[in-house]
Amino acid sequence: MTQNTATLPRLLAVLSRHRVFGLLPEAERAALARQCDWTCFAAGAMVLAQGQLQDQLALIASGAVDLQDPDLGWTVQLHAGECFGAGITPAHRQAAWQAVAATATSLAFLPADAVNALCQANPQLAVFFPSLPAFDRTASLGGTASDEQGTALNLLATPIRTLIKREPITLPPTTSIRAAAELMRDRRVSSVLLVERDHLFGLITDRDLRNRVVAQGLDIERPVADIATLAPLTLDAHSPAFEALLLMARHNIHHVPVMDGHRIAGMITASDLTEQHSTSAVYLASDIYKQTTVEGLARISTRIKLLQQHLAAADASAYSTGHIITAITDALTTRLIHLAEAQFGPAPIDYVWVAAGSQARSEQTAKSDQDHCMILDDGYDEAAHGAYFRDFSKFVCDGLDACGFIHCPGEMMAMTDTWRQPRQRWAQYFDQWVNTPEPKALMLTCVFFDQRAIYGKSELLDTLRREVLQRTRGNSLFLAYMVSNTLKHRPPLGLFGNLSLIRGGDNARTIDLKHSGIVPIVDLARVYALAGGVQAVNTYDRLEQVAQAGEVSEQGARDLRDALEFLGKLRIAHQARQIARGQAPDNFLALQELSNFERSHLKDAFLVVQTLQGVLSQRYQSGRF
After folding, report:
1. Theoretical Cys-Cys bridge with 552: which of 151, 308, 452, 556, CB 3.0 to 4.6 Å?
2. Prediction pTM value
3. Is residue 154 part of a domain?
């Protein structure tokens, strides 16, 4: 390797002929040439090692350079006039690739900060440097709506108290409707809190005035308590803002009182969270509840993928993304149930529609199928009620399928007679699965031990879950079988800690992030929860609570939570890239999508899972026989 052997005129000639640098005015090109470092390499010499491509831009003046990914065994050859490195090589590959001289080669190197300054001074060149991290192209071009969405979604990590814009506006419940409306007009607010003896009594909104007073011709001198929402849902001032978003999306409300202990801190509205109505979860859920046909819901559901893209772009956590996407699924399910009741009439007996699997755990992404069931009141009579619930459940399941949530291949859905039963039959199911844990029973437990009420009489599920957890807590024989079943999903690590890729088929040379990474953590958390009688369903929440219950060490639970978050974000980002390309999202990640740093963390995450699987296996090994 030799340096600085080129004269300035020779370098200027190279730059002036180049398709990008030739666009610059002559004076700027001369200034750029003075910043360049001309270097010659012999064939086979290392030009830039792994981790160095992001530091500088290289222009090939003569010869050829091989860009190599040694982990994947890939090589791409570049020739005179081509560039690589800072701003050119995709950012997520810069740390993984290295550059080797394929022939005797002359290169002109430009530091990354000089490339950044060049693009700042000449924004029209931004298209040629798509991966330059320090250059904010959207700022120079005026920004985009997606930037605003990202800003709004960054509120996911913001405490709710910071979004409160004014002191709470309150009235006694005995105030007249007229006086309340006048106060709302004068203070220019869309809601007022009703307070009695310093305690929150209820709230009214402009929607209440419109729907419950004007539309019904109600006497405006009546007390405002007559039209109020009593004992409204509230949030703690220290909660993250995304909890407000979830509450609004799930219950189709736009105003939530915020409490600081027993004190009313203020009110938060949907517009406080985000102005991006088209893809915000709150407004998406609101649009869902406005639909009167399955076709309308199907049209709305196409926006879920866009919502996931925005969440990924805003760097939302996997935990919050799962809750938000699931809230939309809950809203679609609830609205379909409303439409079913409108078509078939009110249910003849009490029931609860129950989510299972990832929906129950609030861990859904844009790629999900259906897992759910119905628990009916024990007054169920097949002759009197069977036809109603068959038609009802089929309507909802077919509606979800039209909205992109395909029918479960294993038919674990409420439209299947087996999974639409009275509560006492469900108690028998769980009793049989716990006492006779044969392979099919173990498979079913992985779905139906994760349950959450979506609509209906939730007590039917709550009492059942408490009974089930009493049977599983400390039941070493059952838990040993559960552990054995859990170990069927192993992290893809080879003998020496290398990543093992899928060998054949449509997804060859990829990693299944779901079944090889996320499912093993979900399974571990489920076993811990069943062993400790922990009622949490979300995997992250389970890991927090089972550590407190002593089922796993604090360090082990923390490592699993971190691994789950890392794998979840990889999965969400991978699916967002597929959606942007117009592809159907899946769970199969190719290593070339990752930097060396990410690959290293991927191995660490898998090692955590492998280690905790081994610990759990040892604990319950003697309980199998």
Report:
1. 556
2. 0.64
3. no
